Amino acid sequence: MREAKRGYKEAARVGNREEEARWANEIGDIHKRRGEYIEALRWLRIDYEISSKHLPQKQLLPTCQSIGEVYLRLNRLKEALVYQKKHLQLAKDSDDLIEQQRASTQLGRTYHEIFTETESDHNAMRNAKKYFKSAMKLARTLKENPTCMKSGFFLKEFIDAHNNIGMLEMDLDNYEGAEKMLLQGLKICNEEEVGEYDDARSRLHHNLGYLYTELREWGKAREHIEKDILICKKIGHLQGEAKGFINLAELHHRVQKHGDAIRCYETALDTARHLEDEDALVNQINRNIETVKKASKVLEELKKDEQKLKRLMRIICDARGTANERKHLLEQNILLDGLIEKACMIFAWPKHLEFAKRKKNVASELCDKEKLSDSYLVIGESYLKLRNFCKARKWYMKSWNVYRSIGDLEGQALVKINIGQVLDTSGDWISALEAFEEVQGKLLSVQMTALDNMHYSHMIRFDNVDEARKLQLDIQNLKSLLKEGVLNDQHSDYCSETETGGNSPESNCHISASQTSSDSSRSIPSLPGHVEEFDEDAPLASLVCLSKNSRKTKTSRSDPHVVRANITSGIVQDFSRGLKNLWCGLNINKQSQDLPQSSDSRDILSASMPIHIEESICSFKCKSPIFVADNGVDVGSLSDVGVPIASKSAPSESMLNGYPVPVRFQQSQDCACFDPLVNNHHKIKFKLGHDTLCVDLSPFIEDDKLNIELVKVEVACSYFLQLLEQKRSKGLLPVIGCMKTSGTVLCSSEPVVDFEHHVNEDVMIEVVVDEWVPKRLMKSYIDSCEKLSEPVNMHLLKKLYNLEVSEDEVIISDCGLQDVSISPFLNALQAHKTLAVLDISHNSLGNETIEKIQQIFNSSNQKYGGLTLDLHCNRFGPTALFQICECSVLYARLEVLNLSGNRLTDSCSSYLSAILENCKVLFSLNIEQCSITSRTIERVAAAISFDSVLSHLSIGKNNPISGNAIVSLLTKLQSLKRFSELSLSGIRINKPAINSLCQLAQSSSLTVLKLGGTYIGSDGVIKLNETVGTGLQELVRLDLSYCGLKSHDFPRVCQNLILLGGILELNIAGNSIGQEGCNALRSALIDPGCSLKSLILENCQLGLEGIIRIIQALADNESLEELRLAENTNSFKETTLLNSDAVETTNAICEVNNENDGLEVADSEDETTREERPILSGPDASCASSCQRNSFMDRHIQDICEAIISSRNLQLLDLSRNKFSEEAIDTMYAAWSSSRCDVKGSKHVGKDVVHFFVDGSNCCAKKPCCRRD
């Protein structure tokens, strides 16, 4: 790089334009290879400007080619096409075949990228295919032309052409053609003796690895992916290496090896972070890691549900022939629906097939043909995903025959579409199209899906543009019909059971059943206990005849695939992020968005709610043409099982003394809450003076305890909200002292059971008001809502009621606000005038809100006095800072500005400079996680003057930031007299930056230093500690999490920390402390000079023994109050022995993870699945005997309990994600609650959460980013 820049400067000095352009192109190419695309673009533009002005037109060829490639890597596709087309035109004008081949290849890649992003751009697909084929033809000509001096060079281009066409065929789901093309490329490599570690081979191996993953040939996939990674490592291709590990992670994810998948993603993440401008790649990897973690949780839930299924099967065996048999079978059917759903979500298709077969057996025992046909449909999907197309078609036909026998037209149509999917996937495209065409004329709801798939077939499979265009018009017309409600009219005239209307009692009964159950048909599985209309006590034999003659009429069937996904919509929508985007999701979402909403209030989670499935960063995306895919499977009819699903009502009933409250004051709710506590409402009457009101207490029940303090806030706000306007005009709100029932004062954390003993429907709770306080801003906000006819945001109202802050401190974080919904509040704020703190963090606010806030400050008479402006975690962009710069009032008042978590980008650099230069009293600036780079940091450093009062600066979690930029900033901070707090979390720090950091620590009075994720290593930490120890600093908080500390260096690190003294909070999470480091840390905690109040040791590989020793060390420690030991027992031995259920499910895990190509479940309809066989216990059925497990647990849990009892000063203990069993947690909590001194011990135990704390301390209530010191 230095040589290239010297050459450029010399050429510019002597005026040699050709050399100047060449060196600029060379520098740009170096930056491009490093992944520094923005800098590369800058130099290439210099090259373009020089070449276009001073050089012959032919000199622009390599320039246009390079700029087009950089734009492509930056995903700026329109700009890439401009330069690539110019490149091709210039090549044609100069008759240069070599450049024509390069330009055609690039154009093909860009159009391919457009096609994969839009997923339906037929022209992009055709152009990609056209240019790829043209590039292959030109490469073959150049390779075989003996007169071409560079024919040998174009061997690689010829191989790449095979790779590109193979890649395109994969995207079109033509796996056979893709495999043939890619293997041909490898054959050419071998025949032409291309080097073993050539990059052309790596691309072929990469795509073959992905292809065989889709074909479920795991061995071949892994072989090719590992070869790809090895080649990229050898040639130093970081981007290719990262994508190779992403492919490997995807492979592990497909076979449910989630731990291996996460490790591969983390390796890819470390590699990608070395690339300057690959933020999109890094962000997508992070999202994929979260996806796999959620998949791992789903797998755990699946294993637990599988155990429940086994227990239920044993109960059914005992209940054979009794009145309870049918009830238990229905419960088993519901449980199997959930297992099928979870298996589908994590791609565990062998398990999916196993559960589907069992569902078929249950449906047979229930004598329910509808459930039986649904189960056949699910079995067919299992075989489809396992790529056993013959059996998939066989089971789909079974399903179709049963649907036809019961007259279910929609079911028949769905099966035809699924058969079309089988035929299309197996390569019989003509028969697939015929299957889709057979659906035409059926129900409109299914016809939409059929039209979408026909459109795909004509557009992609047959390249029939005219027919595809006609079908697109039909789809649009059908959408219009659906919007106009024609679908409802059609449903009302249709009866699936009888073709004659009739006036018989049976007919009338059927119609009635249809009217009451049509909306819930094929909807959310019911809870046990909510069963069908049949007599549960009747023996099964008596229902055989009834099931034939008394089927319910079904007028409408919501799409089963969308319904299945929406059963747990929150999980599916998050879980689907990062996974392959399937054409099915696109088609069915289109249909779902256009279906009319059901008027039934119970049908909140209906098929009309679309599912958004985003695509993964895995190099290439699969677009299956038919809607029956990974995000869809019919979970079976529930026409026999009704589920009352109530939408979550507003906490307060809209009545006060018998008068209705205006609708505008009722709280709006976003969605239904499928929770037993909500379905079993705790609506209680409260008496406040002469007024009464009803409040739903369900939202305030946690861990079967009632939070009285939250109830007080709810009652106070609801009371004020429902007052008549004349009573509300004074703006006085009640401060509730206590609440009584039958003379008994309700205590905080009241157990729900005890509470229900106090209260019944006939008794009201008496509210005792201590005083009335004015809340002018609350009143103004409610009045503004009434004026604008906007609903009151109850979350915001409770925030304004906060009695711990003055009305000058406005904190409305995390209220779900947007630019529109916050308008009433901003109007109220304008009338409020005075303001010292404005916190609107954790909302979805944009630049429009900032513009209004600027107007509020400009119109205010308050020209002086400190102001805190907290805007973090919103949707503000760079121009939001422009509004701050334009507000002269802020120049004199702004002291704290928190902008973290907003996408400001480098466009904000000039605004930040202006703020630092003009806001003379600004002492705290937080710009963490704002997508800024070195350029902004350098502008910030330049804007800091020596007389600045800046004392707090946070710039962490921004990438890429170079070491030079960090050094410049730290050098500038050394000149500040008051600087005391610095956060560099998540920024890689090199040695020069560490030296500058040490100089800053020596010259400044640092009290807080956050270096989490900087990977400064043991040497850097020791050097920093020694520097701090020699100065006058008094560090209070030190964050060294994920800094790469090793166990053998940790004794010295601990010794330096002890010598340093005065540290109150220490975070060393994510470092490999191990047993050696654990001993050193234990010695530090025992030392009388230890002043720590908070210690975080999460994910430090302490092991169970280490956890025990750390807690034991606190026996004589009087300072430590908070200890976090989450995720420290990760070894298989420990997790197996700690979790009493883990041994029992080991075999199930192995079956899921060791899936292979030949795996097949017995296909007989009368087979006995594994769960029906006798369940073994003892040494032969588990990895460790129960005696060994119990001995291990008893000994170690007892040691932990004794250590907890001895650590009496500890106020918070975090033992989350250590795989403790429920029994062990209860035992430890008993030790905790019995040993706290004068305070009451409490716990917060949930999924992945085990917190023990004392009253008065919040274990996880406040987000780390919202902490104020």
UniProtKB/TrEMBL annotation:
Q: Which UniProt keywords apply?
A: Chromatin regulator, Coiled coil, Leucine-rich repeat, Nucleus, Repeat
CC terms in the record's Gene Ontology section: nucleoplasm
Q: Which residues form a coiled coil?
A: 275-315
Region called Disordered, residue ranges: 493-531, 1161-1181
The annotated regions of Polar residues compositional bias extend over 493-511
Similarity field: Belongs to the Tonsoku family.
**Any idea what this protein is called?**
Protein TONSOKU
